[in-house]
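Minutes, structural biology subgroup

Action item carried over from last meeting: produce the structure token record for Glycine cleavage system regulatory protein (Pseudovibrio denitrificans). EB confirmed the sequence was re-checked against the source entry. Recorded below for completeness.
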Amino acid sequence: MKKELVLTVVADDRPGLVGEISKVVADHKANWIDSSLSRLGGQFAGIVRVHVEKAQAADLSAALIKLETLGLTIGIHEHNTGDAPAGAHALLHILGQDQPGMISRVSSVLADLHVSIETLESLVEPGSMSGDLMFRANARIIIPPHLSPTEVSEALEGIAADLMIDVELNEAAVEED
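Output recorded by EB:
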């Protein structure tokens, strides 16, 4: 019988980190299911989901913890197999002049509407014309069945002028896990 683990990983970025982690996973006959790994500010960070035989789970966890001697910080979490939130998938794009609190304000609006954030990627970069720092975010969200995408857009537009951001919401095709 299989057990599902979610691993969190953080380390100073250097070549070979994914190889070190994936070798330990493979050596314990675990299957690397999916992951999101990135270099952020000189750090390597990410999450990985693996399937492992229950009999191998403790040995895999111990081997992964030993990677801490190589400078990795690894969290090991048993995957909660609860159902994903029901609703329509949508893609949310945000663009505006960078300022503190943007994600906090947008995520508060979404939370108040019970909208779930599946993925969120953000970046601050110089604007093409002015050189001012621009904040760009892309999120995959799940809109609960009792709401329409229009209602979510209207709620976000309610803070857009205050934050000086452009908000675009598009329906997304459902992807199977």
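Discussion: The chain has two domains: 2-78, 88-171.
Next step: EB to file the record with the rest of the batch.
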